[in-house]
Structures are given as C-alpha cells and as structure tokens.
Design brief:
It is built from 2 helices and 5 strands. The protein has one domain: Resolvase, N-terminal catalytic domain (Rossmann fold). The protein is globular and about 25 Å long. The strands form 2 sheets. The chain has a 3-stranded mixed β-sheet with strand order 1-2-3, with helices on one face. Strands 4-5 form a two-stranded antiparallel sheet. By secondary structure, the protein is α+β, with helices and mostly antiparallel strands.
Length: 84
C-alpha cells in the first residue's frame, strides 16, 4: 500500500495497529506518511491528519520512536529489514 500512495492521498485504516506489527513500526509508518504528505485516517482512534488536531496527535506519536533504529528478525535470526 505504501508503494502506491502518493502525496495528498488518504490512507484509511480501521485501527492504527493495522499499520505495523510493533509500536515502533506503527509510529515509523505514521512518520513516513507525514514526510510523504500522505494523509492518514484511523477510524477507531478518530485520528485524521487532514485536521490540525489529528496532525498534532500523529506528530506526538511518531516523534521519539523513529529516532531509535529497530531491527526486525525472522525465525532464523536473519534481519528482515531495518526500520529507521
């Protein structure tokens, strides 16, 4: 989905946990969407980055977690990808 989304598109999810497998991955996805000027609407949480309050909530959520690099591993211990 992220490969197809462009600036000014809106990604609608039922809940924020649909954006990743961990809190770190979700917050980094939120940050990436913001950097690419892609709007986000999370129905359960009531977050809509098209509004000033939604942008503020997203900025607070995406801020500190993406500063710490996180590695995700598969069952064999190989690094699948580095989330930065």
């Amino acid at each position: 989905m992220l490969d197809y989304a462009r600036a000014d598109d809106t990604v609608v999810v039922t809940a924020l946990d649909r954006l990743g497998r961990s809190v770190a991955e979700v917050t980094c996805t939120i940050a990436e969407l913001g950097e690419r000027r892609i709007l986000l609407r999370a129905l359960c949480e009531g977050i809509d980055t098209a509004t000033p309050s939604g942008r503020a909530v997203a900025a607070i959520m995406a801020g500190p977690m993406c500063a710490v690099p996180v590695q995700r591993f598969d069952g064999s211990g190989a690094v699948l990808r580095k989330v930065s």
